[in-house]
Specification:
Layout (H helix, E strand, L loop, with lengths): L8 H10 L7 H8 L1 E9 L1 H13 L3 E3 L13 E8 H11 L6 H12 L5 E4 L2 E4 L4 E7 L14 H14 L3 E5 L12 H18 L4 E4 L3 H9 L2 E6 L9 H8 L2 E5 L17 H18 L7 E4 L8 H9 L12 E3 L4 H4 L10 H13 L4 E4 L2 H15 L1
Parallel strand pairs: 6-7, 6-13, 7-8, 8-9, 9-10, 10-11, 12-13
Antiparallel strand pairs: 1-3, 2-3, 4-5
Amino acid sequence: MRELILDNERTITSELKRMQVDPEAYSIFIKKAKYMTLKFDSLSCAQVNVLKQTALICNADAAIPKSAYRGGRGKRYSVLLFANLREIEKIEQRLSEQPWMEEIRKQLAAVIADHKEPSLKIGRRRYAMNRTYLMGVINLTPDSFYSGSRYTDRSIIEKVVAEMTEEGVDFIDIGAESTRPNSMPVNEKEEMIRLKRVLPLVSKLTRAPISVDTYKARVAALAIDHGASIINDVSGHRFDQNMARTIARARVSTVIMHMKGKPRTMQRNPRYKDLMREIYGFLNERMAHAIESGIDRERIIVDPGLGFGKQLTDNYVIIRRLAELKHLGRPILVGHSRKSFVGNPFGLSPENRLEGTLGIQTLLIRNGASILRVHDVMEAKRVASLIDLIIR
């Protein structure tokens, strides 16, 4: 006897073929191999116990608080459901017979529906998330944390865009205001001047979709007019109430990022009671707001915001548990490149964090990242291509 690591559909299918299993049964066994742990919060005592018993009937299991067996009037409880995809389907079907369990059934149905890799619409093109995409960084600021990404001269920007394109970049992200910790905000007029000078040039030099990193709606509108097809908002459309509507009217794509606080204050002892729950809840709520504002769901990308209002170890938890965000059903973008959590434990400056960045990149791809925001396109492309070859 030996344990098998059947970590993707191709591996599972290959093993089933080798054993000459009936192809009609492939889909059943693929679902059985996809095991999940789902957490439900704020359930009544009755809901907790019904979910527990239903799970057991369907050959799954659920962990519930000891006090939930006896119950208490008005008390709410959490549940951990341990099940594979096939068992989740069975539980969802059984709960459909109990109208008062409808909200839980809907949540399970959403898990089943979101199991497939999402696609992303940018402009008229649809991107299948079947490989890792790279977003190259160009900062038009004199104070970005990494000196190697600061470009203010047009001739140098022209050279960098040409290099990124040749090295295989998929998107180019341009920022005219630094959002590093403790950074001072840039006024709207100055941000617009910086972008106006560069965006038309970059649009002519590359066919890669251009993303603009801004949280100001008027700046976003100008960027869109000058060729941007993605708006990367570190505030998750919170700092400017007109942002979501501006994006919706233009029918462009957007990155919704989680951040605690504002760039100037976000690293002043940020604290979380339940880190991943808070990030998931924030992104889910901001996605709902975006969709209500008219943004096409397929044009939304989510970003957990590494380094934005996070303590050192928070970043490591997010990297390790990134796959939890896949249930949002949208492509996950991560900006990890040369950040402090890569180098600070070893006293390394941003200029000396390439190896750590590439190592973390491997974990991010393995754990569900679809788009990586990077400073070093050539090196990141080589690593991503190799990891994709192995796991995708």
